[in-house]
Amino acid sequence: AGDQNLFTSLYPTLSQQLPREPMEWRRSYGRAPKMIHLESNFVQFKEELLPKEGNKALLTFPFLHIYWTECCDTELYKTTVKDDITKWQNVLKAHNSVDWLIVVVESDAKKKNKTNILPRTSIVDKIRNDFCNKQSDRCVVLSDPLKDSSRSQESWNAFLTKLRTLLLMSFTKNLGKFEDDMRTLREKRTEPGWSFCEYFMVQEELAFVFEMLQQFEDALVQYDELDALFSQYVVNFGAGGKCL
Known about the structure:
This is Trafficking protein particle complex subunit 10. Residues 1-240 form the TRAPPC10/Trs130 N-terminal domain. The protein is mainly alpha-helical. Helix content is 52%, strand content 9%. The chain folds into two domains: 4-173, no CATH class; 189-239. The strands form two sheets. A three-stranded parallel beta sheet has the order 3-4-5, sandwiched between helices. A two-stranded antiparallel ribbon has the order 1-2. A hairpin with an 8-residue loop joins strand 1 and strand 2. Helix 6 runs antiparallel to helix 7 (216-238). The protein is elongated and about 75 Å long.
């Protein structure tokens, strides 16, 4: 969300550098941590893309929402940007989407055209005060991202670390909820109207997720469980039971 032209100018560098460094992925239930590379698909913010109640998909809705701005004018912030961020956050709250990040892009060229901008009244401070409350880390600064300098590279590295961390946190949380919902659905298999085909699609999506992360053993576990569940129903049907 936010300044689409700004994001478009940074996207080639972002998409190239994001998966370059691996991240340690820690999960619950005593599972061993694994190193993974994160590749993300960025889409323009639209309310209709947010998950609906009862949505069983994991790969078709956005996990982390990012607002981009390079505003460095306090008056422009007051009259335009602040209202835009407020509307964006209100939509997220309405859909219980709590994973977000605001990126303020700063450039020396733009700053030179402005006067009397004190650190305590900077746009970053205003955004943190207006929107971040106790989550000041949810507003980050990206300094001169298109400049070839050590300062620019340091800024990129810090931003990418933050982005990878938030992406992985959000993904892990959504994956855990998806697995919980899948287990609840599986436990209802003895109830009338339960559909193996519908359940197959849910667990198959989980297998796709692990395959996407190159965790092939975990993906195979999902298919093994589906095979065992299907075999059980075949045996039940052969013994005169009901095959759903």
